[in-house]
Amino acid sequence: MEKKAEKYPVVIDVCHIQQILGIGRRQAYELVNSGQFHVVRVGKRIKISRNIFFDWLEGVDKKKEIV
């Protein structure tokens, strides 16, 4: 399971999340639809900022850092 953010494009999709977390397609879709992090829907496609996702994965809360 490769977790280096630089390995992935700036905007990732569900298949990248599957690879990063080592989970199945259904679980990945449940995660992106959970509201845990910001996603952008382009038609039927779901796109996620690589930085947003990896910050979430590492437990960084950008909302709390802005004062």
Order of strands, main sheet, comes to 1-3-2
C-alpha-based Rg, rounded: 12 Å
The ordered H/E elements are EHHEEHH
From the 3D coordinates, which CATH architecture would you assign?
Answer: Orthogonal Bundle
Tally of alpha and pi helices = 4
Mean pLDDT: 90
CATH fold name, please? Arc Repressor Mutant, subunit A
Beta content comes to 5-15%
Structure class = alpha+beta
What is the helical fraction, as a range of percent? 40-55%
Number of domains: 1
Largest sheet: 3 strands, antiparallel
What's the SSE blueprint?
Elements: E1 11-12, H1 14-21, H2 25-32, E2 40-42, E3 45-49, H3 50-57, H4 62-65
Antiparallel strand pairs: 1-3, 2-3
Describe the protein.
This protein is α+β, with helices and mostly antiparallel strands. It has one domain (5-58): Arc Repressor Mutant, subunit A (Orthogonal Bundle). It contains four helices and three strands; from the N terminus they run βααββαα. It has helices spanning 14-21, 25-32, 50-57, 62-65, and strands at 11-12, 40-42, 45-49. It has a three-stranded antiparallel beta sheet. Strand 2 (40-42) and strand 3 form a beta hairpin. Helix 1 crosses helix 2. The longest helix has 8 residues, at 14-21. The chain is globular, with a radius of gyration of 12 Å. The mean pLDDT is 90.
What attributes does this structure have?
67 residues, three-stranded antiparallel beta sheet, alpha+beta, Arc Repressor Mutant, subunit A, globular
Task: Kindly summarize this structure in a few lines.
This protein has 67 residues and is an alpha+beta fold.
